[in-house]
Structures are given as structure tokens and as C-alpha cells.
Amino acid sequence: MAWFSDSGYWLGRLVFQRVLAVLYLVAFVAAARQFRALIGARGMLPVPEFVARVPFRAAPSVFHWRFSDRFFALWSWSGAVLAAAVAAGAADAVPLWAAMVLWAVLWAMYLSVVNVGQTWYSFGWESLLLEAGTLAVFLGNAAIAPPVPVMWLLRWLLFRVEFGAGLIKMRGDHCWRDLTCLYYHHETQPMPGPLSWFFHHLPGPLHRVEVAANHVAQLAVPVLLFTPQPIAGWAAVAMVVTQLWLVLSGNFAWLNWVTIALALSAAAPLWGGPAAPLPAPPVWFAVLALAATAGVLVLSYRPARNLLTRQQMMNTSYESLHLVNSYGAFGSITRVRREIVVEGTADAVTGPETTWLPYEFRGKPGDVRRLPRQYAPYHLRLDWLMWFAALSPAYARSWFVPFVVRLLENDRDTLRLLHRNPFPDLPPARIRARVFRYRFTTWRELRETRAWWHRTEEREFLAPVARSALRGRR
Description:
The protein is of the alpha+beta class. It has 18 helices and eight strands. The strands form three sheets. Strands 4-3-7-8 form a four-stranded antiparallel beta sheet. A two-stranded antiparallel ribbon has the order 1-2. A hairpin with a 7-residue loop joins strand 1 and strand 2. Helix 1 packs across helix 5 (124-137). The chain is globular and about 80 Å long.
């Protein structure tokens, strides 16, 4: 079975698995640090209520059998420790079967978290991490030469991520076709980064070049992944470059980094093989890897068909294990940035003279003089959902009132998700929320005001409300 494995892929496998393990680490740490306020027993969308109404087969998770905040924390931190060990090389230091078990445990542990995460875990990069994690199980470790069929499955996943994103754009907002989307995107994206202001102020013609280059990178270059080396390798390098451009221009959790890891797995043959050929895999491993390959190909039917339909869906899982999924992002671009500003007051009675103090979120815009921060690959789930809530209150229907209730109680776990709590000693008497239109300042405005943003109030999102009015709505 000489065709089954190829030592030339050793570096691609090594880089992919190590980067993936680091991203698992980030994901588990984010889960451990944020879950109490979001999905904990007293969270905004509690897991016990979710598992009571959703059957196990629809959302397989260990938390169907047992849930407590302590158990979830232990589960998440254990996943983080295991991911750190794998990132440090633990899977290459154990027998092949044990390495497969380590990767399978990581996948199963994170699947348990995602499947009870509800709207907080409804992002495409959750499924992408799980799908990539499934393939990592069948890549083997340093004891054997990498299996060629599974390495090709990594390219198939990379192709679907990039090509799906390219198609959703061409079928979506007309600004992708007339090359003007980046006139708006850097300013209106869900969570700008520290360089987004500067990207936004690039010349208009350069923005058009960016969009055109994006179309080439997502619609033409992915096809080259299935050509012989070195063409496929250089195509993967081009994808790495475009993904790093996205990393610099915004915060998209680990979406870009999983894509980079996939691309590096295809680019690695450009740098040659190991000093000595690696042993061929044992027969039992080859059988399992080929069975997994066949399973992925069968499950790829619906994602592949989705690529060909005009009603293309993005970020869709077709089964509860997230084994083979559809991807895509930003089929439409928001032209105007709106932000919900949440404020509290210590005054029992509100009026024109009431002093309102704002809560500051970690990643989303608030204080106009505060430069956006870099958080990716870490994922600030509340901040992302606040961006969606500003687009439409429907996105916040299930969790915004519980969020406000917790602010009125000075709930410790909820306040840990924020950058600034204006009421550190006593909880506020009332909370309100207003929608503001935000835009990046010009160069001149930045020099004169030292503000990165300019904002104007548009409407009320939530009228001033006291805790007594929300009693029973935790």
C-alpha cells in the first residue's frame, strides 16, 4: 500500500495538528471563562433548560446526563489541559492508537460543549473546528507516514471553506460584484481590530483591488488545490497570505487560523520531506483511515450540492456530530454600523437630569476614544451577539432581558464578560439601552478629538427598567 502514505506530508501534518491543538486550547479556555453567565445553571440560556427540551440524538452531549457549573468548568479546563498537552507534542510521544484516542477525546469533549451552547455557539467556526478535529484523528502521529487520503480530505475541507465563502459573496450583496464592499466592511464588521480604522481609510481604488483579490483567492485559487505540486502548494501559500490579511483587519475568532492550518497542510510539501522516510502505517490504521475517508465522501453530498444551488446556505451542519458542514461568510455587507449602548443609573426616579453611566464591552465599540483591541483567536461571545442584536432585536429575544436582569443584580459572572462596570459597589437602580450609529472618524477628526469613532443616537432599544419590573425573568 505504498500509495496510501507519503512521508513528504510529515511537516504539513505536524503544523496542522499543532495549530489545531492550540485552537482547541483557546476554545476550551473561552468556554471555561464565559459559560457561567451564558449557559450556566443561572446563566442567560441555562443548559439544564435546554437539555430538558432537546433530545440527546438532536444534540449529543455529556451534559444530557449530568450538568452543574462545577462539572462544566472541570470538563472545559480538562479539555484545555489535554489540548495544551497535544499542542506540546503528547500525541507524537505515545503509540499510534493512543494518539488517535487523544484526538478523538478532544473532539468529543468540544462537541459536548458546542451542542449545548445554543445561540452562543451558533458560529461557523465551531463546526469548522470540529470537522477539522475529526480529520485529525485519522492523520496518525510521528510514528508513521501521513495517510494521503486524509491529507486530501484536508484540502477538500479547505476548498469548501474558501470556495463556499466566495460563492456566497457572488450570489449575495451586489457590492461584491461591483467591488465596493470594502468601502464599508472594515467599519461595519462585527468586531473591528486595532488596525481596522487604518484599513478603512485605504484609498477607494485599493479597496476595489482588495475585493477583486478576494474573489481570485476564494473562487479561482481553491481549484488549484487539486492540481499537482508545486502548483497546489503555492495555491495554499496564497490562501495563507489572504487569511493573514483578514487576521490583521479584524477579529474573527479562530476562523482564519483553522483555515491557515488547513492551507499549511497543503503547502508543506514545498519544503521537502523528513531526513529519513517514515514507516508505513499498520493495516488496521489504513482500514480505519479509508473507512473514515469513505464516510466523509458520502457525507459530502449535501455540502457539495449546497455549493451548486442558488439558495446556498452558509455555516450549516447537516447532522448533530458536525462531521461535514457548509461554510461561508458575509454574503451581505452592512453599510451602517449600529451599536447598542447599555447604561445604568443609581437614580430611583429617572428624568432629564438623570446621570446615566455606560457599561463597556471588551471587544465591541463603546467609548469613542477607545481603540478596538485584538482578541482573535479568542472568541468574545457576548460582544458578537450584541452586534447581531443591533441589526435586529430578534437576535436578542432569548437572552437580552436575562442579561439586563443580571446587570441589575451586579451578577459577578456577567460582569466578568465586560470591560468596565460603572457600578462596582452597588447595583444600578435602572438600566436602559440605546442604539447609536457609529462610524470611523476621519484623519482630521482623529487629530482634533483623538477619537477613533464618531457616534450619533438613533433610537431607544430598551426603555429605563428597574429590577422589580423584570422579576421572574431570569
